């Protein structure tokens, strides 16, 4: 796994040992950032269920002003720190070692709005639904914010309309997909 583009281009990243984390493949990550290309520079990026931190690090490498990494696994947190040190992108990073819902509530008190929210929760446990329900009324996003959910192809997101949001793009791969969501205007 490596950084695809930007200031840390071609640097190899550590992955979290074991089967608890599924790293996003380089090809899938490249496709994701091709879609987000114009939105990443100068953005505030929120990486939920960060794992190794590869997605947030890619955003920082491509010019995001800030990335907040949210992860509760100790092994993953260590991996994120090592990867940020290795890529020298840590100055623009904040790591929150906690549950995603707790992190969202904590971040709301700062008054920040994120341009891009990426989440890659464990597949087929409906964790993305809980997070989207909280985000739908959160001050962390506005009508210009982009939310991306990485999930298994079987994941049903048909409830999005009930949350005052809509899906505006979906990229389907062999075993997973990226769903691009924004608030209704």
TrEMBL record:
One of its GO terms (molecular function) is methyltransferase activity. Transmembrane segments: none annotated. The keyword Transferase applies. It comes from the Bacteria. The keyword Chloroplast does not apply. One of its GO terms (biological process) is rRNA methylation. Keywords: Methyltransferase, Transferase. This is 16S rRNA (Guanine966-N2)-methyltransferase.
């Amino acid at each position: 796994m490596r950084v695809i583009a930007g200031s840390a281009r071609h640097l190899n990243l550590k992955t979290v040992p074991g089967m608890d984390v599924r790293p996003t493949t380089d090809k899938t990550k490249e496709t994701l950032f091709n879609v987000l290309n114009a939105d990443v520079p100068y953005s505030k990026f929120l990486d939920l269920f960060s794992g190794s931190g590869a997605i947030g690090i890619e955003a920082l490498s491509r010019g995001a002003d800030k990335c907040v990494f949210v992860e509760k696994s100790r092994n993953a947190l260590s991996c994120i720190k090592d990867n940020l040190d290795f890529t020298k992108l840590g100055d623009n990073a904040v790591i929150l070692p906690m549950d995603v819902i707790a992190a969202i509530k904590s971040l709301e008190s700062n008054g920040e709005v994120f341009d891009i929210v990426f989440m890659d929760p464990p597949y087929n446990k409906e964790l993305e639904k809980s997070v989207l329900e909280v985000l739908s009324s959160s001050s962390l996003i506005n009508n210009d914010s982009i939310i991306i959910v990485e999930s298994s192809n079987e994941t049903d997101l048909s409830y999005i309309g009930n949350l005052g949001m809509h899906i505006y793009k979906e990229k389907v791969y062999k075993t997973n997909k990226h769903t691009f969501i924004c608030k209704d205007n």
